[in-house]
Protein 1
Amino acid sequence: MTVHQFQPERYYNTIGAHQPVLTLNSGDAVVTSTVDARGWGADGESAAERGNPMTGPFYVEGAMPGDTLEVIFESITSNREWGWTSNRLAPNVVDPEFAAQLPPSDIVRWTVDVRQGIAFPEQRAGKLANLQLPLRPFFGCFGVAPAKGQSISTATSGEYGGNMDYRGFTAGVRIYFPVFTEGALFHLGDGHALQGDGEIAGTGVEISMDVRFRVQLIKGKTIGWPRGQTDTHVFCVGNARPLDQALQHATTEMLALLREDYGLTVTEASLLLGQAVQYEVANVFNPAYSVVCKLPKSVIEML
Amino acid sequence: MTVHQFQPERYYNTIGAHQPVLTLNSGDAVVTSTVDARGWGADGESAAERGNPMTGPFYVEGAMPGDTLEVIFESITSNREWGWTSNRLAPNVVDPEFAAQLPPSDIVRWTVDVRQGIAFPEQRAGKLANLQLPLRPFFGCFGVAPAKGQSISTATSGEYGGNMDYRGFTAGVRIYFPVFTEGALFHLGDGHALQGDGEIAGTGVEISMDVRFRVQLIKGKTIGWPRGQTDTHVFCVGNARPLDQALQHATTEMLALLREDYGLTVTEASLLLGQAVQYEVANVFNPAYSVVCKLPKSVIEML
Amino acid sequence: MTVHQFQPERYYNTIGAHQPVLTLNSGDAVVTSTVDARGWGADGESAAERGNPMTGPFYVEGAMPGDTLEVIFESITSNREWGWTSNRLAPNVVDPEFAAQLPPSDIVRWTVDVRQGIAFPEQRAGKLANLQLPLRPFFGCFGVAPAKGQSISTATSGEYGGNMDYRGFTAGVRIYFPVFTEGALFHLGDGHALQGDGEIAGTGVEISMDVRFRVQLIKGKTIGWPRGQTDTHVFCVGNARPLDQALQHATTEMLALLREDYGLTVTEASLLLGQAVQYEVANVFNPAYSVVCKLPKSVIEML
Amino acid sequence: MTVHQFQPERYYNTIGAHQPVLTLNSGDAVVTSTVDARGWGADGESAAERGNPMTGPFYVEGAMPGDTLEVIFESITSNREWGWTSNRLAPNVVDPEFAAQLPPSDIVRWTVDVRQGIAFPEQRAGKLANLQLPLRPFFGCFGVAPAKGQSISTATSGEYGGNMDYRGFTAGVRIYFPVFTEGALFHLGDGHALQGDGEIAGTGVEISMDVRFRVQLIKGKTIGWPRGQTDTHVFCVGNARPLDQALQHATTEMLALLREDYGLTVTEASLLLGQAVQYEVANVFNPAYSVVCKLPKSVIEML
C-alpha cells in the first residue's frame, strides 16, 4: 500500500486510452491536484485547455475488462481562494418561453474561504449581499476509460463515469466503476467547491483542488454503471438524456445490485424499491444528464 | 373559523367544476375521510369507482380566478389496517430492453400498523420477511378545479394540482394552489401510507384515510403552479412529461417566487439556485410526471 | 342519409360532454362552418373566445363506448381571404441556447387566395416577397368527447383526438375515433389553410372554414387511438409528450391494427414495420405532441 | 480527379483519429466495399468485429477544422444476395406496458435480389409469404472524425455524422459534414439494402456493399451539423436523444442555413419554416436518435 505523490504535467480533455501517468497497485493511494474546468490551476494561471481537463490517467495493475474499480476520495480540498460560476440558469432548465427572455450569461467570481468552510459571490451587493453557502467539495468529472478504445469528451458521461457533476461525490464516498480496459485508466478533474442539485447554472463553484484518493480492484465483479456507497446509502448512477432515460439506467442498475448482491427476485426488488427508493437529480445540463438511484442502508439491513 | 364534519356520499374520478359538497370560509377546517385509489373505504368495501375517487369538491367563499388557495393537512391517518401496492416496477422506469423481461404484475396487500407506525407486505416470506418501513402518510391526488371549466381525470395532474403522488405532501406542510374557478373547488383523495420517490411501482401503499385540513384564501396573489413550504424548505411543483419538462416548470415557478416574493433579479436568482437548489422526483409514473424544486429556508433567510 | 345544414351559434373551448347541437344518424352529412383559432369568423369579426373554439358537438345516434366513429371531411374550404400565423418559431423547437436569442413574436396576416389555391404573407417585402405556398386546408382540432366525462381544453389532444394539428387531415381522408361516450359527441374547428410539419411556429395559416363532413358508425369495433386512411396509406396517430412517447403510442396502435385487422403476429408485424413503416411529425408545439405512423396500402395489399 | 480502387484490410468500430488508409484530393472518387453491421463481408464470412465496422478513414488533402466536406455516394450496391434483420420491434418504440409483452428477438435472413430490385424474408410463410419490398440501398453509419481527438463508438452519432441510419442517404444525395480534424478522416459502413423510417426494429436489411463515392472540399465554409441535398430538397440532420432534441438541432441548423446561405432574417426563416418545413424520423433506436429537417427546393427557389 503505497502513497504516490503525483504532480500533473499535462491534462486530457477526453477520457480514453491515453498513456498512463502512473501505475498503481490495488490499495495504493495517490496525492495529486487538479485544475479547474477552464484549466486554471492553484495559482490562477492557465495550465490546460478549457473543457474539464483531466489529471491522469492512472493505470491499476491487474485491472481487466469485467472487473470493478473502487475509488475512495480520502480528501478533496480547494487549493485556491476563489472559484467561478455562471450567472445565468441554463436555458434548458426553464420553460422554453421563459428561456427566450433570459439575460446574457457571464462568469462571476466567488470567494472560497476554506478555513471558514464557506463561499459567496465576490461582489457583495444586491439581494445576495449576505449570502454564504457551506463548502461541499467534490469532483464533477472522473471515471475510467470507456469500452472499445473510445476517447470521449469530458463534457459528457456514460457507463464509464465522466462528467456526472453529482454533488454527492464528496470525500469519504466509495465509488465503483466497471472496468472496460486493461489497467482501468482512471482520470479525474473538474473540482467544485459546492453546487446545487442538477448543476442548473451549468457550473458549480469551479475550482482547482488538492486530492488524495485510493483505488481498490475488485476482481471478477462486473457492474453496468457507476455505483457507490456512503455511510447511510448505497446508490447507482445513470447517465443519459433525457432525465427519464438516466433514471431508467440508474433504476435498472439498482435492480441488478439487489438481485446480484442481495439475492432478491425482481418482484421482491420491486416491492422494496417502490416504497423505499430515493432519487437525486445529479446534473440536468451536460450532453448526458445524470440521475442517482439510492437506498438507505437501514432498509438494506432488513434484507 | 368553523370545523366542519363531512361524511362523503359520492366521489368524483375527475377534478373539475362539480357541484360543491360544502362551502367553507377562509380559515375553516374540515374533518372528513377519503377512500383509496380503487374506491375501497375504511371497512374495505367498495364505495366508489376505481381510479383515484375524490372527496369533495369544497367551495371556498370568495375565491376567484387569480387568487391563491392555501391548504394545510393538519392530520392524515390511515383508517384501516391494510393497504396494497403493485408488486412490479412500472415498465417505463427501467431500461426498455429490461422491461421486455419483467414478470406480470399483481396487487399485494400490506399490513399497516398505525400504532407502531410501520408497514410491511402481508406475506412474510423470502428476502423481505423482515422488512418494515416507517409510515409517512400523505395524499397522492388533490387540487382545485382547472381553468376553462375543464374536468380532468384524476390519473393526471397540471397547474391545478391533481395526481402528483409526491411523498412530501405530509401533514403539516402548507400547500398553495392557483385558483382558476369561483370557489376554487378543492378535491382530495388517493391516500398513501408511505411511498418511495417517483411512485415507481405505480402505487404507494394505497389506503383509505381520515383527514383534517384547513383552507386559507390569499386574495389577489397569483401563482402559476402548486407551491408549498415545510419547516425547512419552500418548494414549487411542476407537472408534465417528460421529467425534463416537469423540472422546467418547477424551476421557472421558483424563479417567479424569488422574483415576486423576495425581489431577486433573474441573475441573482440564477446565482442562488445554481448553487443551492434541490430537486425531488415526486412521480415518474402518471401521465404527467411531477418534479419538486426546493430551497432551504436557511438560505432564503440570507436574502 | 340526410344532409344537415348547421349554423353554429355558440362554440366550446373544451372537448367534452357538452349539450349536443344536432343529432346525426350514421351516414348523415353536415354542412357547417368553423371560426378560426382566435374565434374570428368568415366576416373577420370575433364570434367566440380565443383558443380553438369548436363547432358542435354532434350526437351520433347509437354510438356507444367501445364503438368506432368514422369521419370523412368531404370538403374543407376557407371562407375568407386572409389568415394569420405567428412570425417566430416556437422556442421549444430550437436549441435552448438559441431560444435565448429569439426575437419577440407577433401575429402576421397572410393573403389566402382560394381561387388560385395559394397563400403568402400580406406584407410583400424582404426575402419572402415572392413566396407563395399552395393551399392544403385541414382542421387542426377535432375529435370526440373523452372518457370518464372529462372536458379537456382544445389546446391539447389525446386518445379522443383534439388539437393534433396534423397537416394530413385534409378533405377525402377517412378518420376513425374510439367512442368513449354515448353519442360520441363530435367537435371540430381550428382550420388551417396550410401548415408545415410539426406546426413549429405554433400556428398554421389560421382561418375560418366552410366544411362538409359525413359520419359513419362502426358498431362493436374498438380502437385505442385515432386512425385513418388516405388513397395510399393507412395510419395511426399518437398524442403525448415527448415525441418519443407520441411515436410509441402511434406504433403500438399500428401493431394492434395489423394484428386485429390483418391477423399478423407480433413477429410478422415487426418484420414488416421495421422495413416499411413511415412517420410524420404532426405537431411538436402543443401540450401533447402528435406523431403519425403510416403504412403504404401497396404494402398492406401483399399481406 | 483520380478514381481510387481501395480494398479494405482492417475495419474500425469507432469513428476517430485513426491512421488514414488513403489520401484523397478534393474531387477524387473512391471505389471500395463495406462489410455489414456484424462484420460479415461479400462472401458471408466474418471479416471484422461486430458493431458497425468502418471502411476507412480516408484523409482529404487540405481539409482543416472549420471547413466542410461534401460526400456524394455515386453508387451503392449490395454485393451479396442476402441480408438480415431483427424480427422484433425495439422495446423503446412501443408503449412500455406493451414492451413487457414482446416476444424474444432473433435475427432473420432476407433474400436480396439486386437484379429485380426487391427483398423479402427468406422464410416464405404466414402472412408475409408474398411480401416483397423495393431495394433502397444506403449507408447507416458514416462521417468524419469528431472534435477534440475523440474516438466514438459506431453505435452512436453526433455533429460529425456516425450511426444516423437515415434511409434518405441513398446514391445521388450530396451530404455535407463539418470538418473537425486535419484531413477530415471520412469513415463509412453499415450498409442497408432498405429500411423503414426510424430503424424501429433496430436494423435495416443489413448487408455488405460495393460503393463508389466522391469527396469535395469546401474551404472556409463552416457548418454545425450534417447537411445534404437531393434533387428536390435541402436538409439538415440533428442527432441526439430524445427525438425532441434531435429535432431542435436539425431545426436550428436549418435556421443557420437559411440565414447564412440565403440571407433570411430569423423572422423570415420562421414564417417560411412554420408553413413549409418537413421532418423525417431517421432513427429512433440508436443511443442518439436522428431527425431530418427538410425544405423543398421549389420553395427555396422563391427566396
Note: Residues 227-300 of chain D form a domain with the Endonuclease I-creI fold (CATH 3.10.28.20).
Protein 2
Amino acid sequence: MSLIVMKFGGSSVGTTERMGRVAQRIVDQKLQGHRVVVVVSAMGDTTDDLIDKSKEINDNPPAREMDMLLTTGEQISVALLSMAIHKLGHNAKSYTGWQAGIVTEAVHAKARISDISPDRIFKALDDSQIVIVAGFQGMTEDGEITTLGRGGSDTTAVALAAAIKADVCEIYTDVDGIYSTDPRVVKCARKLDVISYDEMLELAHLGAAVLHPRAVEYAKNYNVNLVVRSSFSQNPGTLVKEEAEMEQGIVVRGIAFDKNVARISVLGVVDVPGVLASMFGALAAEGIDVDIIVQSGVSNGTADFSFTVALSDRANAIRVIESIKSKVPFSELTYEENLVKVSIVGAGMVSNPGVAATMFDAISKQGVSIKMVSTSEIKCSCVIAAEPLQDVVRALHTAYGLDTEVAAFVGGPQDRR
Amino acid sequence: MSLIVMKFGGSSVGTTERMGRVAQRIVDQKLQGHRVVVVVSAMGDTTDDLIDKSKEINDNPPAREMDMLLTTGEQISVALLSMAIHKLGHNAKSYTGWQAGIVTEAVHAKARISDISPDRIFKALDDSQIVIVAGFQGMTEDGEITTLGRGGSDTTAVALAAAIKADVCEIYTDVDGIYSTDPRVVKCARKLDVISYDEMLELAHLGAAVLHPRAVEYAKNYNVNLVVRSSFSQNPGTLVKEEAEMEQGIVVRGIAFDKNVARISVLGVVDVPGVLASMFGALAAEGIDVDIIVQSGVSNGTADFSFTVALSDRANAIRVIESIKSKVPFSELTYEENLVKVSIVGAGMVSNPGVAATMFDAISKQGVSIKMVSTSEIKCSCVIAAEPLQDVVRALHTAYGLDTEVAAFVGGPQDRR
C-alpha cells in the first residue's frame, strides 16, 4: 500500500463529464489499495471568467481581493470532484488550502509555501477518505487567503507530497509524459521514461510547459518522486527523480525552445568598473528578468553588450537603459525580436566533449546563423532567427539520436496552473 | 459616529453594474463618518448555477460538499464588492465567514451560529477599512465550512450586528420597507415606519418574504435595531425594534397571506388518550411542519381533526397518517388545496376586543366562508378559499383603517437568501 498524491489540472476537470472520468481514475488507485490525496486546479475557464468579471469592476484590483476571488475556482473544483467520487460509492472529503494546513508567506498573488501541517489530511486518510485539496492556494499565519501564482497547483501537489512523505506525486496532464522535444514540432519525439530534476528544471525553464519550474525545484529539494502522465491514457508516463540513468548512447535528454525572446544590444558602453552591475541592477529593480548576457571584447575603452528578455519586457528594458544613460553612457541601443532560443539539455553533456559543436554544426547546416550562445554543465542554448524553427529542432533531434519510430501522442492545449 | 451593519441580498448585487451602485451606497455611509460592516449574499443566479452544476455530477451530493461548493458564491461577491469600493478610492477588506469569526454548530446546510469572535473585524475597522463579510456561511469548531440555510445572510447580518454591538443593522432589499400588506395586491398598502419584533415575526412567518424569521428572532433575542430599506431609493425604510408605538387608532399593523397551504382532515378518529400525540408525533418525526390544528367536538367516542401543512408536504403527511392507522384508527381521510391563510397581525389586538369579529365580518361580506381559525395574542389567521384573495385582503385592509392615499413602491422579485 502506497501513499499517492495525484494532481489534475484545469483542462482535466474542464467539464462535469471529465470530472467524472477523473473521479474514476482516482477511485481506481484507491481500489488498488493505495491511500490517495488529490490536488485539483480550477475547472477549465473558471479562472479567466473570474478575472474578466473583476476587470468589469476594477481594472486594477487589490491583490488581496484578487486572491479572495480566484481561490473560489479551486474550491468549486474540489467540492464537485468530491461529489463525483461519492457518486461512485466512495468516501471523499474536499479541503481548501487553509483547511489542508497549507501556510504561505504573507504575499498575495505569488506566495511561497512556508509550512504544511498535514494533521487533518492524515486524520481523513486514517478514516478511509480520499482527500481532495484545492491547489494554488494557502493561508498566511494571520489567516489571510493567498495564491501561489503560476504553476501553483503543481507546487501544492509536490509540497503536499513532501509534507506527508508520499511515495509518489503523479502530475496528470494532457500529454503522455515528458518528451525529448515538443511532439507537435517533431513527430518522432521520444517519450522519456526517466529524467533528473536538474534536466527537468532546465527543460521546464526553457519552455517545456508540462511542469512548472517551482514545482520541480520543490521536488528536488525534498526529493519527491514525480511522475508526469496523461489523464486520458494508462501509459506509465515519465518519472522525474534525483539521478536518472542514461540510455545507451544518449547524451542529450531533450531539446527545448522558447519563442518569448527579445534581444537588446547596448553598443559602445564606456567600460569602467561597475558598469555591468549598474545596468543589470537597474533592470532587476524594475522586475525585469534577464536571461542570456553576452559581452564582446573591449576596444578603445568601450564594450558591446547583448542580453535577452521576455518579449513583454522589451519596451520596459529599453526605457530603463535609456533612463540611466547619464550613469552608464553608451553610443547605441538596438533590439531584435522574431527570435527563438533553442536549447539542448542532458546531464551527460558535462562528460562528453563535442556536444556543443554538434549543435552548432546542425544549426549551421540549416543555413541559420547563431546570434548568442549560453552554456551550463547540462545545457547549451543558442539564440537564432525564429524561422525555420521546425527544421532546426528536427535536425538537432536527429543529430543527438533522439528520433523514435513511434509517432508521439499529442493531447489538447497544455495546462500549467 | 455610528457603527452600522449593511446587508445586501443577491439581486442587489446581481450584476457588476449593480455591484458598483451598492459600493457607492456603502461609501456614502462611510463618508457620513460611520464605521461600516457589510454583509453580502451571492450574486443573482450564482447559487442556482452552482446547484445545477452539482446535479450534473451527483443528484444526491453530501451536504458537507454542497456547503463547500455554495460558500464560493458569497466569497466571489465579497471580493468583487471590495474591488468596487477600492475603485471608488476607499479602503475595504473582504472576509469569508470563518475569517470573520463566525462559528456554527457542526451541521451542514442549515447550521445555527453558535459564536462570533469579531476581533478581526474590529481590527480592520480600527484600520479605517470598510469590512465586507460573506453572508450565509460559517465554520465549525473543527474547521469545517458550513452554511446557515435559507435567510442565512439576514441572520449573518443580525448576528454580526449583535456581536459587534452595532447601532443599527440595515437590511437592503428591493422594497421600500415593511408594508401593511403586499403592495402588489393592495395598491394603497401602507409602508410602516416602525414595527415590533413580535409583529414582524408573525408577518415573516406568515409569508411576508422581506425578512427571514430566524433573523428577526435573533434580532429580538439580542435587541438589535433592524432597518429594512430599499437599495434603490433613499427612503428611510421600516425600523424593527422591541416595542413599537401604535399609530393613532390603528390596532392591526399588517395583513399577511400564505398560499402554500393544504388542509388535511382526519374524520372519525377513535378518541382515546394519546391519539393527538401519536398522530402529530408521527408527522413531526417525518419533518412535516403542522401549522393550524382544529379539533371538532367528540361524538359517539370519535372526533374529527383538521390541520394544515405546506403544499409540498401534503402527500407525505397523508402517507404518514395512513401508515399509523392501526395505532390511530379513523374512518375517513380527506384533503383540500387551493386555499389561502389570511392573517391580521398587531400587538394592540390583545387589548382591543372585537378585532377578530371585524375580520370574520369583512371576510363574510365578500361571500367567503371561513374553514379554519387560529388566534394568538397578536394575530388572527383564517383559512379560506384561495379566491377571491385580492378582494378579501383589500376589504380587511380597509376595515382596519390601513389604506393610504399614496400608491406603494413595488420593486422586482424579492430576495431572501
Note: The longest strand of chain B covers residues 262-270.
Protein 3
Amino acid sequence: MKAKIIITPKKAVLDPQGKTVQQALEHMGYRDIQAVHVGKYLEIELAGSDREAARKAMEEASHKFLSNPVIEDYQLVIE
Amino acid sequence: MKAKIIITPKKAVLDPQGKTVQQALEHMGYRDIQAVHVGKYLEIELAGSDREAARKAMEEASHKFLSNPVIEDYQLVIE
C-alpha cells in the first residue's frame, strides 16, 4: 500500500515560495498565470493490507506530525 | 484551470529527507513503514481555457525549469 500526502499552505497564509515561482515563470515568458502554491508531497510505502488501519495511522501522522495544521492543509490518499 | 505538478526524486537518487521522515515516524511508533519519498507539489492557477496549450506550456516549464530532470521525475495533471 502507498499513502500519498499533499501538504499545502492554507489559502490565507502567505506563500512567498509560490510567489517567487510565479514571478520566475512570468519572467520566463509564461502568460496567464494567476497564482502558484508550493507545497510538500510525501509518498509513504506501507507493509500490511489493512487499509482502514493504515488510513487511520497516516491521518493521525499527517495531522500531528507531518503538517502544521495552523498554517497548512493536507490531503491524504491511500492506494 | 489548474496545473498540479508533483516532483519527486528518482528512485535511484538518495532521498535523505525521506529517510529522516521515515526514521522519525518509526521513532514515533508508526510500524510497517517500508520507505518514504519526499517531493515538491506545485499548484498553478491558469487563466484561459485552452487545455492543450496549457498542458504544453506546463509540460515545458516542468521539464525545463520546475524540476531537475537529471535527478527528479514529475507528474503533471491539468484540471
Note: The interface with chain B takes residues 6-8, 18, 21, 24-25, 28, 30, 32-48, 54, 57, 61, 65-66 of chain A (CB under 8 Å).
Protein 4
Amino acid sequence: MARKASIIGGGVIGGGWAARFLLNGWDVSVFDTDPEAERKIGEVIANARRSLPALYDKALPAEGRLSFHTDLAEAVSGADWVQESVPERLDLKHRVLGALCEAAPATAVIGSSTSGFKPSELNEKGARAVVAHPFNPVYLLPLVELVGAASETDRAAEILRSIGMFPLIVRKEIDAHIADRLLEAVWRESLWLVKDGVATTAEIDEAIRMGFGLRWAQMGLFETYRIAGGEAGMKHFMAQFGPCLQWPWTKLMDVPEFNDDLVDLIAGQSDAQSGHLSIRELERLRDDNLVGMMRALRKSGSGAGGVLKAHEATFAEPKGATLPVTVERQVPTSWTDYNGHMNETHYLEAGAQATDRFMEIIGADAAYVAAGRSYFTVESHVRFLDEVKAGERLRVTTQVLGGEGKKMHLFHRLERGDGALAATVETLLLHMDLTARRSSEPAPDIAAKLAEFTAAHAGLPRPEGAGRHVGQRA
Amino acid sequence: MARKASIIGGGVIGGGWAARFLLNGWDVSVFDTDPEAERKIGEVIANARRSLPALYDKALPAEGRLSFHTDLAEAVSGADWVQESVPERLDLKHRVLGALCEAAPATAVIGSSTSGFKPSELNEKGARAVVAHPFNPVYLLPLVELVGAASETDRAAEILRSIGMFPLIVRKEIDAHIADRLLEAVWRESLWLVKDGVATTAEIDEAIRMGFGLRWAQMGLFETYRIAGGEAGMKHFMAQFGPCLQWPWTKLMDVPEFNDDLVDLIAGQSDAQSGHLSIRELERLRDDNLVGMMRALRKSGSGAGGVLKAHEATFAEPKGATLPVTVERQVPTSWTDYNGHMNETHYLEAGAQATDRFMEIIGADAAYVAAGRSYFTVESHVRFLDEVKAGERLRVTTQVLGGEGKKMHLFHRLERGDGALAATVETLLLHMDLTARRSSEPAPDIAAKLAEFTAAHAGLPRPEGAGRHVGQRA
C-alpha cells in the first residue's frame, strides 16, 4: 500500500513537498483553506512533472493519489508524514502544530518547513515537531535541514532519502539553521551594495553566477578553498585569507534601513533585469537549468549527482512479458533539439542504455567490466519512425537476433508512452578483453545466459526493419 | 600575427591567466623568478588543456607560443595585455606595477588580479593599472571584475570577451569589489558556525551544494528570490524576508579570533572531508564538474552557457580540400563511458553535428528552421571502427551520396586527431514542413545548393561501408 503524506499549507513550499512525495509514489493529502490552493498546488505539480522525472535514466514509481481537504483530521488520517508549511509566525505555528499532533497518527513524522524557528520554540506548547526545512524548488533541490531529537530526525532522514532528498541533520539547534545564516549574510551585504549604488541586482547576480555560483553547485565553500590553497593546502589558504577578516571591507555590522525607497529600488532593478519573463517562465528556465546541471553531476557523483544515482538505484527494474524491458524512462528537455523533438543522438542513447541493461541481465555488469571484460558496439542501424517530445515516457524492449561466440546481435524497439513505435535500433557487439583491447570469448556463465536468450528468441518472428541498409526500399 | 599576453607572477592565478590566453591562440610570456614557476604553470596549463576545449562543440584556435622569462623588459616587450598576479601587498604591487608601466608598450592593457585593492590605491604612485580580478579556475570561470577608468575598462572588456570571459565592469571602486564582499560575508559566518561547533566544514559544504549553490550557478541571488516571491513578485518577497534582517540570527558583527586553534579546527575538518583526494584530483573533479554544468547551461544560454555560445560563434569554421569539414572539436570527458572511451551515443552526436553544419552550409540554417522548414533524419547506420579517448580531436568530413527532391543522403567520416578513421555515419534525411509535420520539397535555393554538392561529389568513389546492413560480411 502506498504511504501517505499530508501537506498542511499550500503555497510554493507546500506545493513542492506535495509534488516530491506524489511523484515518488506516495499518496498526498493537502489541507489548505485557501480556495485557490488546488490551482496553485496544481501549477507546482505541473512544473515538477516536467522536470523531476527528467533527472533519472529510469522511470519513477507510478504517482500516488492526490486529494484536497478543508478538514484537518480527515487530511492527516493515516498519514506517515505530516508537513507544516504555514507562514512564519510563532503563534500560528503553535496552533497548527498543536492541532496536528492531536489529529495525526502517533507514528507519523510531524515536520515543519520553518526557516527561522528552532524545535524548542516550535514545541514549547507541547508539540513534537521536527524542523524539516527544504529549499525551493522542493521537488528538485535535495537539501532538507533536519533539526530535533535524534530519534525523530533519524527516522525522518530515512524517509527523506527514500524520496530522493538529502537530509542534513543539524546537531545543535540555532536560529535559521545553517544555510539561511549564510544566505542572510549575502542578502544583507547585497542590499548594501544596491543601496549604495555600487552594483545593480543584475550585476550582483552576474558576479555570483559567472563565478563562485558555479563552484558552489558542486563543491562547497571549504572544499573550493582547499583547492585554492594549492599544494600547500588548507592551512596555507587560511593564513592568506584569515587576516582579511580584520579589514573593513563589508558593512555587515550595520542593518540597512528597510524602507519603501529600498524596496522600490530593488524591485525596480529586478523588473529591469528579469521582467521580460513571467514567473512561470523563470521557473521553467530555472528547472531546466537545474535538471541539466544535476544530470551533469551524475557523471562524477558530486553533490546532487550522487544523490540522484543513489535514489535511482532503488527504483524497480521494469519487467516485460515476452521480451525483456531494458529501458523505461522519461525524456528530459535537454534531449530535444531545434526541431522541437528528441534529437537523433538520444534515440541511440536510449538504445545504448538498453544494451547496457541487457548486458547487466546476462551478467556482463559493472563488476565484469571492472574485472577487465566488456562488449563493444561495432555497428548500429537506427530507424527514426516517429517523433518523441520532452516529458514523454520511453520504453525499450530488446530481442536477441544472435549470440554465438564473441558476437551479440540485438534489436531494440523504442516505444512511446502511447504505445507508438518511435524507433528501432539494431546493433552488433563484440566481446572484448579490455587489457589487450582485442576481441575475446565471453566468460562461460555470460555465454550460457546469452545462449538462453538466443534460444528463447529464436522462435520469434524476425523484426521488421532488421538487416536494412540506409535508403533501402521498404 | 598572434597577440601577446605577459603574465607577471606564476602561481594558480597567473597560471590560469596564462592558460586562458594561450588556449585562445595568444602568445604568452611568463615572468616569475621562482625556479618552480615553469613546473607550476605547466600543471595549470595541463589542467586547462583537458577541460577548456571540452566546453565547446568547435575547436579552439591553435595554441599560441609559451615562453618563460626572468627579465621583465623582455617578458613584456610587444605585449597587448600585461597581467600582474603577485601577492596582495600594496608596496609590492606599487613596485611591480611601476616597473610594468615603464617597460610595457604604452598601448598595452595593464591588469592587476588584486582581490582587495582599489585602482586608486594601485595607481597612487603613478601606475595606470586597471583591476582585472578573475576567479579560480581562471581558464574555466568566465567572471572578471574590471575596475578603473572607463576608457581602459571598455578596451579591456573587449579583449576579455574575445578570450571567452565575462567582464563585469564595477562602476564605483570599493574595497574587495563585488564578489569578494559576498564571499567574505559567507566565509565569516561559516567560521563562526565551525568555531561554535554548530556545523563541520563538510556539513556547511553540503548545506551549500545540495541547495542554494545549484540555484546560484544559473541565476543569482535576486532572480532566484524573485521566483520565490511567486506570482506576487519581488515586492512580496522583500516584505517577507526584509524584517528578518532585524533578527539576531547572524554573528556578522563580530570577527572570530583568528588563532591557531581555529586554523587547526578548520584544517582538521577539511582533511577529514576531502583529504582522501589530492589537490590535483580535486582540481580535476572540480573541472569535470564545471565543464559538465557549463555544457548543460549552453542549452538555455543562462549565465556561463550564454558566454560559451557567444564565444564559440567567433571561432573560425574549418575548411577541407575535397570534402567539407563539418565538425572539428575536442572530445569532452563527459562523452566517455565505463569502457574508458567515447560512448557510441556521441559518435552519432558528432555525426548529427556534422549534419547540422552541412544543413547550414546549404542554407537550411536556424533562420530556415525558424521559418518552418527543416530536415529530419529517418535512418542512420554507424560503423564503430576505432576507439576515441577524452581530450582527442575529432574531425568530420561529409560526402553527399544523394540529394534529389525531399531526400538528402549523407556519409560522414569521423577522423581522430592522429588521422585514424574512428567511425562512419551514413544517414538519410527527409525535408519537412514543420507545421504540417509532413515531408515537403526544400526551398529552391536550398535544393540548388544541395544539387551542386551532389553533382560535385558524384565523381568521388563510393565510400567503403556505404549501403552496409548490420552484421553484413565485409
Note: Chain A has three domains: 4-176, 180-276, 325-458.
